[in-house]
Amino acid sequence: MKITKQDLKNISLLSKIKIDDKTSSTLIQDLESILTMVNKMEELETAEINPLTHPIESTQTLREDIEKKDIEREKFQELSKEKDSGFYLTPKVIE
Amino acid sequence: MSELINLSLTDQVLGLGDKSFSSKEITGAYLNEIKKKESLNCFISVFEEESEEKALIADENIAKNKARPLEGIPIAHKDIFCIKDKKTTCGSKMLSNFISPYSSEVFSKLDTAGAITLGKTNMDEFAMGSSNETSFYGNVLNPINEKLSPGGSSGGSAAAVRANLCSFATATDTGGSIRQPASFCGVTGIKPTYGRVSRWGMIAFASSLDQAGIIAKNAKDAAIALKYMSGFDQKDSTSLNEEVKDLQKEVDADQEHVIGIPKGLIENIKNDQVRDSFKNAISILEKDGAKIKEINLPHIEYSLPAYYVIAPAECSANLARYDGIRFGHRSESVSSLEDLYVNSRTEGFGKEVKNRIFIGTFCLSAGYYDAFYNKALKIRNLIKSDFDEAFKKVSSIAMPTCSNSSFELGSISDPVEMYEQDIYTIPANLAGLPALSIPSGTADEMPIGLQLIGNYLEEGRILNLANKFQKLTDFHEFK
Question: Could you give the ipTM of this predicted complex?
């Protein structure tokens, strides 16, 4: 499986991670070698098989609808470098 | 006091109970040993003062006959488990400043059972790695031979148990991250059934595969530790609401075993020493009365490719939460919101984590979803069906844990060669089955493991078989 420079650009854009030119050729090599290994899946005919997203067949349980105060907003927000009046701050989005 | 740290968990519980020694003594002995062996790099954090204080409380409880099941036992947690008000890094620069505002269920359960947390162990970044070399905090050294890898991702936990730095350690296993390091360090590691142990507060890598477990000195110790860590948790929607069996009782019970060996497995083991040791282990169990049956797992050879689509796909989705805004690394050099996302993620993640995010992103992107992700999920179904069929005939399945013993740090640079470390361990994760590794011999003078896979919720049965093996052999003893 071949990975092109355009593929790398798309992956970088979607994953929000920069790929610098210096490492892109090694990265292409790594990704191609992984995808070549993955391509072994092609040997199997799976048209009639259902996909299995989860190993255990069980229905999800719902908790009772009781108000709890497990999450302390102030404590969670302490982890952010930039916040104000209960809001998280980011660089300006609208000029 | 150094002899106290050599004792098994079983003997430590007995000794504390009959007051042969105190928690203060045993905790102090471990803390000394941790300092002495700091160069192994097993720990990311050590809680010295707090451990000493907790040991005094434990001794008071014991004196008042109010001891809880693990009262005063010093343990370590993999640094993937959140502990309230403690740094929880997951081996990453991304979380190097993260002080958890809440505790994981794994920590809470063992804390409630009376265990003392000595510290948090080093690991591959976000549990992605098989050698411990992807940790932001530098790799752990294998205590048996410091030039070699302790395995990964739970390398810190396995090395800490092997180096007598804690009574037992928690760990996690997404594709082999408990069993492979257990094999490399000559200790016992168990990954229970998916959903047996709560994932609440355990930092996510691939949510349908991640499962918490135990690394201990032997199967009996692992059974005790796992018993107090297991159980239904409302906070984890995939937690199994099933009774927790008394593993401590079951590990020593008189049980009959039918062991399945996958057809063609033995002939395909490339390493002669691994193959001979596997055959030897099976013949020991057979002589002890276990029945051996050949089974068919025709799709197992597709586990590695299917896993390296599913795990990266789930990883790319899970790690999307690290945006530099709410918690984790936030880049200083930003002029736009896009910069904030991109620079924080580019600076915060290491190479292997980025590679897996890239693969996952690619496999989930338009035009590739069906060819990769959907295809892998279909293969996952075939693999699970193979196991379901096999467990109609056998009570456990045996395989080597790994196709080799530990390797030199820095010696594997090809990602696929590194991924092949998990070739025997991945199938149990894809199917959600319990599996363990016990020391079963050596290759190139380093330990290798025997892997036992059980049917759903039958942790007790594989621990029972492992305990039988350990009664007949001394591979698990530290020499």
Answer: 0.95
